[in-house]
Amino acid sequence: MKPHEALSFSAKWFTTGDRGGSRCLVLISVGLGLICVLLLVFIILLYITITAERDMIKSYKNTVEEFNQTINSLQHKHTDLTQKNLELETKVKDLTAEKNQLQRDFDSLNKKGPVCFFMSTELKSWSDSRQYCRDRGADLVIINTEEKQRFISSLVSERVWIGLSDTENEGVMTWVDNSTLKQGFWLKGEPNNAYNEDCIELNYNRKKTGWSPLNSWNDHSCSAKKRGICEK
């Protein structure tokens, strides 16, 4: 081979080698670029998936919490309803017992002879209430037994006069038939004659401390206006 031919061959060889290296670099760069793009897409998809799962878990937790709150609320309501049911059952039993007791009291009163009770229609003083009863062939009621006290208490829903006073002799309670008091059904601390109180009322204030059907009498000013219970 001649010297100028060898030189030409070497130049061609180097030129071809450079082109091959450039292609390899381009291919490697493209490959790396694709890998980066795919990696970025994977990271984005992974982020979206994790975010969606996190939101789903948060939603699930909220749903579970609401569900638990609903269960607790229903349990409380069930407990309240059970308690109210027990209270109603107790009230029914108490009312039934009271009804039976009143029926026994009524039967006991009827055995002693037929009686008629009625209330005056106007608010009057003790003496005027008594006169109201007497004008109708009756008198203010005399209460001398427990059954009669319970029965009269069941008839009224306000404070009313009964036929008892100590107007004739201070401190000596006397019924309208002139018999003296043997058994009283007083509220706690009564009678106290706090303001010159000589006439007796049956106090219906069920909220008053110590009140009961057998503890409801109170001395009061005879001039106070209220209805009276008449007995015929």
TrEMBL record:
<dbReference type="GO" id="GO:0030246">
    <property type="term" value="F:carbohydrate binding"/>
</dbReference>
<protein>
    <submittedName>
        <fullName>CD209 antigen-like protein C</fullName>
    </submittedName>
</protein>
<dbReference type="InterPro" id="IPR001304">
    <property type="entry name" value="C-type_lectin-like"/>
</dbReference>
<dbReference type="InterPro" id="IPR016186">
    <property type="entry name" value="C-type_lectin-like/link_sf"/>
</dbReference>
<dbReference type="InterPro" id="IPR051004">
    <property type="entry name" value="DC-SIGN_domain-containing"/>
</dbReference>
<keyword id="KW-1133">Transmembrane helix</keyword>
<feature type="domain" description="C-type lectin">
    <location>
        <begin position="112"/>
        <end position="231"/>
    </location>
</feature>
<feature type="transmembrane region" description="Helical">
    <location>
        <begin position="25"/>
        <end position="48"/>
    </location>
</feature>
<dbReference type="InterPro" id="IPR033989">
    <property type="entry name" value="CD209-like_CTLD"/>
</dbReference>
<keyword id="KW-0812">Transmembrane</keyword>
<keyword id="KW-0472">Membrane</keyword>
<keyword id="KW-0175">Coiled coil</keyword>
<dbReference type="InterPro" id="IPR016187">
    <property type="entry name" value="CTDL_fold"/>
</dbReference>
<keyword id="KW-0430">Lectin</keyword>
<feature type="coiled-coil region">
    <location>
        <begin position="57"/>
        <end position="112"/>
    </location>
</feature>
<dbReference type="Pfam" id="PF00059">
    <property type="entry name" value="Lectin_C"/>
</dbReference>
